[in-house]
Amino acid sequence: MADAHFPVPATMAAMRLTGHGGIDKLEYREDVATPTPGPGEVLVKVTATAKNNTDRKAREGLYPTKGREEVTSFAMGGAPTLTFPRIQGADIAGRVVAVGEGVDAARIGERGLLDFNLYPDARADINLAPDYYGHGADGGFAEYVALPSEQFHHIPNPDLGDAELASMGMCSYQTAYHMMTAAGVKAGERVLVSGASGGVGTALIQLCRVIGAIPYAVSQPDKAEALLALGAEAVIDRGDLDTFVARVLEATGGAPIDAVMDLVGGAMTDLFIDTMIADMSARETYPRLSIAGASGGNVSEIMWTRIYLYQVQIFGVSHGTREEAAQLMAWIREGRLSPVLHATFKLSQLHEAERYFVSRGSDYLGKIVIVPDAEWQTHGAPFALAR
Ligand SMILES: NC(=O)c1ccc[n+]([C@@H]2O[C@H](COP(=O)([O-])OP(=O)(O)OC[C@H]3O[C@@H](n4cnc5c(N)ncnc54)[C@H](OP(=O)(O)O)[C@@H]3O)[C@@H](O)[C@H]2O)c1
Hints:
Quinone Oxidoreductase, Chain A, domain 1, alpha/beta, 23% strand, binds NADP nicotinamide-adenine-dinucleotide phosphate, 6-stranded parallel β-sheet, Rossmann fold, 25% helix
C-alpha cells in the first residue's frame, strides 16, 4: 500500500554491482526499476547506508573458506547467493514510504534502521547461515529498497541524524555484540579489542562499556585520544610486535586479559593468545578468543599445543541473531551507543568513497556513509569531508 504523502517513482538511482572485480564493476544508473514491497515487507526510501569491508570483499570475490581460490563468493547457506546485477549496502537507514500485504500502514513515515541479515529461518537465538541484504538480496546503495517489516526497526531519536544512524548499522554492531556473547564476556572482565578504530572495533569498545566490561584497544598512537574518549581503558600501539605482550600487561597493571576480540588475525593472533596465557594461575576463567575478521591477514600460525594445553577457547563469529539485533536497537533508542561517523559521500561518488576507504589516513575512525544524491543536502552535507 502506497501513501499519497510519499509518492514513489517507477524508476530510481542505484549503484549496481555487475560482477566480481574492481570498482569499475560498480555502475551508477538512474533508470533502475523501483522495487515493490512483497507480503510482510516495507518499502524504504533510503536516506543513508554505511559502507562495510564486506562490500569490497564481496565485489573482489575474497571469501575463501577452504583453499585459496582466486574468486570466491560467500555461500554460507550452500550455493552462492550473490548474483549480478546486485545493489550492495547492508546498513540501511531511511523512511517507510509504502507497505506490502499484511503490514500495518501506520508504519508509513517511520524512520528506521535495518537488521541486515537474510536469516535462514525464524529462530531468534541462532543464525547458522548468515547472508545479508546487499549480498544475497538488494541493499541500500539506491534510492529505495524493499525489506522485511520486522527487520526494519523504528528508531525515532530526533537527535540522531540518518547518516549517524546508518553508521550504527548491524553489520558492525551485531558482529561486535555476537563476538562478546559468543565468548561469554561479563561485567568487570578485561577485553582486548584489535582493529579498534574500525566499524566493529569502535562498536566493541562501546558495547564493553554498556555491559560493564573493560576494553583495551589495539590501534595506532594517533588514534589513541579518540579511542580513549570513546571508552577505551588504554590504547596499545600495534606497531612493535616484540614488546606487545609486555605493553598490554603494563596497561592492565599485570592483570590478565580475560578475552580477546580479534578482527585482525595474521601475525597478531598468536600474540593475543600470549596476552591471555601469560600467567594461567592469575586467571579466573579459560582464555577466550573471538574471531570475526582478518584485516591483518587471513592465515595465522598457532601451535595446537598452546591452544589445548592452555585451554584456549576459540569462537568464530559471523553476524549474530535476531535477539542480539533487537537488544542493540533498544540500546540505540535508549541513547546508550554513540555514532562514530567519519564522513559521508554521495551515492553517485561511491567509486571515490571506495578509493578513500582503501587508502584512508591515520585520522580515520568509524564509518563512511553513502547518501543518495537527492538526499545529500539534508542527510549527507552536514557530515561531508572538508575537501
Ligand atoms: N564476521 C562478520 O560477520 C564480520 C562483520 C563485519 C566485519 N567483519 C570483518 O571484521 C574486520 C573489521 O571490520 P571493520 O568493518 O571494523 O573494518 P575497518 O573499519 O576497515 O577497520 C579495520 C581496522 O583494523 C585495523 N587494521 C587494518 N589493517 C591492519 C593490519 N594489517 N594489522 C593490524 N590492524 C589492521 C585498523 O585499525 P587500527 O588502525 O585501529 O589498528 C582498521 O581500522 C574486517 O576484516 C571485516 O571484513 C566481519
